[in-house]
Each structure stands twice: as C-alpha cells, then as structure tokens.
Amino acid sequence: MNLCKNALVKPFVLSLLVFVAPFAWSQPVNLEDPSNDDSTTVYPADYFAEFSPVSANDMLSRIPGIGLAMRSGGGGGRGLGSGEGQVLINGKRLTGKSNAGESQLSRISADQVDYIEIIRGSSEALGIRGASQVVNVVLLDTPSRSSTSAQLNFDRYSDGALRPGGNLAFSGQSGEFNYLLNIEAESRYNIWTSEEFSFDPDLNLLESRSEENARDQTDYQASVNLGYAFEQSTFQL
After folding, report:
1. Where are the alpha helices (DSSP H) in the chain?
2. Who's near 152: CB < 8 A, 6+ residues apart?
3. What is the DSSP letter of 221?
4. Residues 114-168: pLDDT tens digits?
5. Do 30 and 39 meet the contact criterion of CB atoms below 8 Å apart?
6. Please, are residues 93 and 86 in contact by the beta-carbon 8 Å criterion?
7. Where are the domains of the chain?
8. What sign results for the dihedral spanned by CA atoms 61, 81, 83, 225?
9. Residue 178's closest CA among 109, 225, 230, 121?
10. Does domain 28-141 correspond to CATH entry 2.170.130.10?
11. Which residues does the UniProt record annotate as the domain TonB-dependent receptor plug (predicted)?
C-alpha cells in the first residue's frame, strides 16, 4: 500500500516542478538585504522582450506600479517626473538642467540595456540613503556601440484624411562619450465647420451659411543630446 502511494506522489511532484519552473524563471529577481527592509528588484532585458520596447523608458513603463511610485517621489510631472536624483545610468546620477529622467530614458535604445534595477530604501553600493525608490538603468558593458531606430505612424481624421508622421533616432557611445540625434515630423491637420444664421426681428430664419475650414501643416523638430560620464556622475547637454 505504501508503494502505491509513493508511485502516485512522485509523478505529481515532478509534474508540479515542470509547471512551476518556467514560470519562476521568467520573473524579475528580488534581492533582499536580510539586515533591513530595503530591497532591490532586478528586471533583466529578457523580461521586456514580449513588449518590443524601443527605448529604456518603454521598458520602465512595463514595470508594474512604477508610474505611481515615481510620481510620489516629487516633481509633480508625468511618468518619472523631473527629479533627476531618482534615475541613475550605470549607477551614476544625471546632471543637466533640462534633462528630466523620462526624457533621458527615451533617448536610450532598448537594445543597449542590460537590466533595470528598482532600488527601494537604501543602497550602500550606490550611495543611496533614505530614498523611497530609485531606478538604475544598467547598460551593456561595451566600449562602443551605435543604433538606429525609426517609427512611422498615420493619423486618421474625422473627414477620412490620413496624415503620416515619424521619428528617426541615431544613438551610440564611444568610451565615456554618448550621443543621440533625434528627428521628428508630426502632422497637425485639423478640420472644422463654422455656421452663421440670420434672423428677422420676429426671429424668422432669413439665411444660414456653413463653411468648412481646414488647417494642414506638419511640425518638424530636431534635437541633439550629448553626454560624458565622469567618475561619479553623467553630464548631459
């Protein structure tokens, strides 16, 4: 009778392991410091593969609860807000007046990212103390790299008009120097109808006019981002 029970239990345990193991492998790694309540969660690049991200910011947006958590850190902005202290690149803080965290991460190609750390609390290795939550984007360790990304979109308007738009970006790194060139074109097509009515003193309709107006223009923008990594921080222009 005992032999029969063992024979049933072993296949069940093996089946459970086969089911659980792939699921556990695909999850982010949570590294907890047993000495306190602080923890670091690591999201490898493979975690984001199914979402086909274009930039590091696309990857970050797929982390559950990250938007609300980062907004609570200050700055009052959307997404990461304007607090550069909340975002690290390879463990180094960003500097530069006009370089908000979300903007910077949008300029880093997803294929350059090795993994993303979400650090809650303190981290002695990175010199972080008392922060509610910090994002550390770790790039692949290569002396030089470059990438090109392109996006094409179409907007359909109420009158059936289709207008194209797009984005072309060149980014790369050589040693401690990094660069990004971004070119955008977006349609600003708009159509509206204005109507006029004329009445006599007895409020009888005398005349009505309807006029359709359209504005068809394209906005072009170009930006260049240059950076140099010093020992303790990264300076961006």
Report:
1. 2-25, 56-61, 66-71, 101-106
2. 164, 165, 166
3. E
4. 999 888 765 555 555 555 678 888 988 777 777 787 888 888 877 777 888 888 8
5. yes
6. no
7. 28-141, 146-223
8. positive
9. 225
10. yes
11. 38-131
